[in-house]
Amino acid sequence: MRASAVRLLNILVPVKRSVDYAVKIRVNPQQTGVDLNVKHSMNPFDEIAVEEATLLRKRLGDAVKSIKAVTIGPPKSAETLRTALAMGADSAIHVELPESAPAPEPLGVAQALRAIIRREQDSGGVDIVIMGKQAIDDDAGQTGQMLAGLLDWGQATFASKVDVDVDAKTATVMREIDGGSEEIRCRLPLVITTDLRLNVPRYASLPAIMKAKKKPIEKLTAADLGVDFSPRLETLKVTEPPTRVGGGKVESVDELVAKLKEAGFTAV
């Protein structure tokens, strides 16, 4: 089937700059959060989302018109967008925040993404949003669901397999649930959040990294989108978990029971 005979898809992939997954997290001296003066990279679940968008293009060919990455964060977040462009995204949007601004909360991010999707209506609209199921810094796991609710779109969370039928305007998604998998079919437009087993993200090649420098990044502000990122939650205190104390050996069950009683445990 020729590309002109099929409906073209526009895919939006939100990505986040977060503390690198290999960094050992430490609480800052003020106990207001974690130490951010460490290596940062793209959130791993978002890497999976970018990879899935490029795999959909590989499977569907010219039916995928565009893949656009978007991030919300300080100027350094542009590095994350360049990574997404090197992995296969065509263009990007950077909603730039001041360096000192607090990280936006899930609801604020969802509202900003809704505003971006509305802006994209003039250039063909957005058919599928593919995003990580959670960010490894706050582990909130809420943005995708909130975005689907704000848009009144279908949602397929924790996806481990995605198949899109362009002609039928549907997607069949295998999603992770407790004790197994669930297969659902959704109408487009659709919000999909990615699980670990969806794919293995590629490493961007040097030629792709060089090409990414020439791909366009549009800069926006919160005012451009009419969104307020002011925090609705207040973090009172952040502390590290208590240090684990080493255990001890016992010679018999009777000795174990005696020690449990000494520690205040009683049989039920």
From TrEMBL:
The keyword Transport applies. It is found in: Mitochondrion matrix. Its cofactor is FAD; AMP. It comes from the Eukaryota. One of its GO terms (cellular component) is mitochondrial matrix. Residues 32-229 form the Electron transfer flavoprotein alpha/beta-subunit N-terminal domain. Belongs to the ETF beta-subunit/FixA family. This is Probable electron transfer flavoprotein subunit beta. It comes from Favolaschia claudopus. The lineage of its organism: Eukaryota, Fungi, Dikarya, Basidiomycota, Agaricomycotina.
